[in-house]
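Quick one, tokens below:
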């Protein structure tokens, strides 16, 4: 079974499948959503694995959030700066639901992101 075969499963099951897929792919299971977002940020930056400062790690997670939510038009890529860091701008308001709903929205978009790779 691959990521495109799981869309009819509950979100929690899809998420668990994604974590297993990532563990098999990179040799380490991300601990949580933040770990997966960090991986996406590094992927989107495109500079390979290296040491990042705490601030850069936060920026990478922000890049990842913007990238995955751009799949539904919440953000659009504005520019890439001279150092290769992408900058996004908010395109439409995000739903103002509770924390659990926001996490579910992110997980759904993260799964879609990996389906597209």
């Amino acid at each position: 079974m691959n990521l495109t075969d799981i869309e009819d499963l509950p979100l929690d099951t899809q998420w668990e499948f994604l974590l297993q897929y990532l563990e098999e792919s990179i040799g380490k299971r991300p601990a949580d959503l933040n770990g997966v977002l960090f991986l996406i940020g590094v992927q989107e930056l495109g500079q390979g694995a290296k040491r990042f400062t705490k601030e850069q790690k936060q920026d990478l997670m922000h890049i990842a959030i913007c990238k995955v939510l751009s799949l539904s038009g919440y953000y659009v890529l504005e520019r890439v700066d001279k150092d290769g860091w992408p900058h996004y701008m908010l395109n439409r308001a995000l739903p103002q639901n509770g924390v659990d709903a926001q996490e579910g929205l992110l997980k759904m978009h993260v799964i879609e992101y990996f389906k597209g790779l």
